[in-house]
UniProtKB/TrEMBL annotation:
This is Na+/H+ antiporter. The keyword Cell membrane applies. The chain crosses the membrane at residues 24-42, 54-76, 83-104, 110-134, 155-178, 184-205, 266-286, 298-321, 342-367, 379-402. It is a multi-pass membrane protein. Keywords: Antiport, Cell membrane, Ion transport, Membrane, Sodium, Sodium transport, Transmembrane, Transmembrane helix, Transport. It is found in: Cell membrane. Belongs to the monovalent cation:proton antiporter 1 (CPA1) transporter (TC 2.A.36) family. Na(+)/H(+) antiporter that extrudes sodium in exchange for external protons. The lineage of its organism: Bacteria, Bacillati, Actinomycetota, Actinomycetes, Micromonosporales. PANTHER family: SODIUM/HYDROGEN EXCHANGER, SODIUM_HYDROGEN EXCHANGER 7. It comes from Micromonospora maritima.
Amino acid sequence: MEALFEVVVFLAIATFGAALARRLGLLAPILLVVLGLALSFLPFFPHVRLDPDLVLVGILPPLLYVAAVNTSVPAFRLNLRPILLLAVGLVIFTAFVVGTVVHLFLPDLPYAICLALGAVVAPPDAVAATAVARRVGLPRRVVTILEGESLVNDATALVLLRVAIVAATATSGGVGVGAVAREVVVATGGGIIVGLLGVVVFGYLHKRTTDAVLDNALSLIVPFAVVYAAEEIHASGVVAVVVTGLGIGHKLPLLMSAASRLQVTAFWRLIQFLLEGLVFLLVGLQLPEVLRDLDEPIGSLAGITAAVLAAVFLARFVWLFPATYLARLVPRVRQRDPAPPVQFPIVIGWAGMRGVVTLAAALGLPLTLADDRPYPRALLIWLAFAVIVATLVGQGATLPWLARRLRLPPDDPVQDALSAAGVQQQASRAARERLDALAEGAPEAVVERLRGLTTSRANVAWERLGGTERETPSQAYARLRQEMIDAEREVFRAARDSGRIPEEVLTRAYRDLDLEESLLRQEVDE
């Protein structure tokens, strides 16, 4: 009962922190981490030790799944080269840079465990990248690259971490190249196979499910089932979840009814909001746990911490600029994908926030090395925690300012509206042709009403090209129809209160009016 009460308290604080962040115009992940750090100093506040397995198997899979489902597969494929350069190349490069720096400061520490720390701090956090990038309003391609990187880089880091830990704890003979290659193939290849099987199995189940509530429940099961299946064969659960999420998300319009899609989208928005808030709050609350066994002299602690932070920060920029511009020396690459403005790699480099995966991986470091040899595990956990706080609070808090100062070339809203209007025109034409083919025998008034609806939808799309100086006809319609809906609600509510209609009639009427209002608000927001 006490544990349940603590969970409710943490969720309430996370919700309050997110609401406060919106009111103050701050990024919620940063405020929640700072709030967690402050609460960790209160003696009466419960101290929670984050279980690595809970994060990697219980919290990360649903967050990765919903991020993958919402990722555009065509955009992901189009940006596959920069995504892989960051998610694979940069992670490995950063891990070796950080591992080398730590080994220089601690030469008696085996290089394998230093490399393990490098793998721990190498991947930017999927939750932080998505939350911050979209909140800041970065260009669409930058957001796609950051989200794609954050979906894949955890798998690279965790596989590298697994290999490094095996090498550090091996009692004799070390780890050969063949064993490393086998580990990588099993983890990555197995994850891809499990993920593809997940697309087939759960895609079939979604297609056969007609009840929106059952579709919702099934979508919640998917990430955990895929992770469990992958872990059973020692494959990468992260890769499996991402592959399944990308496949299901790409086919979603063909797998679910409209009611299921609306309900699943609303459900996952709530789950994502609660889990993200809880994750960042828990990261801040880990400070006492991190400091508990730390006994390094303050001078040497400050020196190695500053060196690791500098290595993490500089490695990203050292990798990014050559990876961005050297490939364009190849004529075919340059012709297919011209070099982006220099602001793009700068802001992508600054967006390397670390988060809960880094902390969970650090807490999962072995207690001893080969032959039960002790090592400064608490120091390595502290270094990982310092990287999280410095990158998330420091870089995350200044990313909006940097994006404004760099004046990134924005996405062209006119081009977006023009493309949408052109496609909507084709869609309206197809709808009218289908209507004409099936209209025989239907009342003429119904047919004319449906023709007017298709014309209205096409007009709304073209109106978005006209600017925002004057109220458009569709905006006037939305404003006036909203007032009418409010009046209708008041009549139904008064009738319920006076006993003229039962509660069920009010509920049905409110459901219909709520659906219409949500559609009106969506059209106005767009």
